[in-house]
Amino acid sequence: MSKVNTSVIPPRACRETATSDAFEQTFERLSSRYPSGSRTSTFPHIVASPVHYERDFAYPLLVWLHDSGKTESEVFEVMPKISTRNYVAVAPRGLSSQKKRVVRSAVNGKIVDEKCWIEPIYDWPETDEAVSEAENLVFDSIAEAQNKYRLNSRRVFILGRGSGGAMALRVAMRNPREFAGVVCIDGALPTGDSAPFRNWRHLRDLPLLLTTSDVPSASVPKLDKDALRLYHTAGLTVLVRQYNEERRSPGGRQDRMDAILADVNRWIMERATNPQAPVSELLPRRSTNDARQSEV
Length: 296
Fold this sequence. Notes:
By secondary structure, this protein is of the alpha/beta class. The protein has 7 helices and 12 strands. The chain has a single domain, classed as Alpha/Beta hydrolase fold, catalytic domain (Rossmann fold, 3-Layer(aba) Sandwich), CATH 3.40.50. It has helices at about 10-20, 75-80, 130-150, 165-175, 200-205, 225-235, 250-275; strands at about 30, 40-45, 45-50, 60-65, 90, 95-105, 110-125, 150-160, 180-185, 210, 240-245, 290-295. Helix 2 packs across helix 7. It is globular.
């Protein structure tokens, strides 16, 4: 297995890689999925290998889609909390987008916008063109991981956080036979688009894990109950887990995410080793208030 030459990596990238030295970071050109000459730009992505990689074992593959404003390096934050041994992971960078930033201040008892600017970010927009582009990125990333490591092609899971979780749902629901499961962490359910249900018969075999919170916020949107009813009507297998943040604790938000990722590992491993198991048996019920679950 080739090693990264840290002498040519910018200092910041070296620090990011050092946080999870069990993984490799690679940036490569687009795969042959695109016709020759159709693209000239690079295809930034990360392929993360498990600790003590065994060449004779076919690993499950996790495709991670980062949150809005993040990059593919977010995989270094989440994979150690999921597992450093059980999976190969790949994370493509999102699409170029923009976000409005506002600095507000109080003037004569009123809140006014003091400064506004547009900041370039990487995100997963929900336009038809962006969804198609995201599909290309996902399947190109899968192809790159398959070229490097031995994978079980029937154990490919797609997961993401925030806008990445919402896009993971869209991509998986449009291509249900390509994935063994999808995890949407604190993402909004796709609405206003009937296209994901065009393969509704195959969608019934696609397990979905959704996470939410007891108090919706800017980072954890409220799940659309009408959309959940639609999922139920279509006969989809959806497990909804509610994780409550301990607001009095300084590390409450991180503790909540750690609990989510630990449960994601259990859920995926059950699906990878026993795909016919009832979804209600895949996660332990917690006796505390940090997580609640329901099956749709």
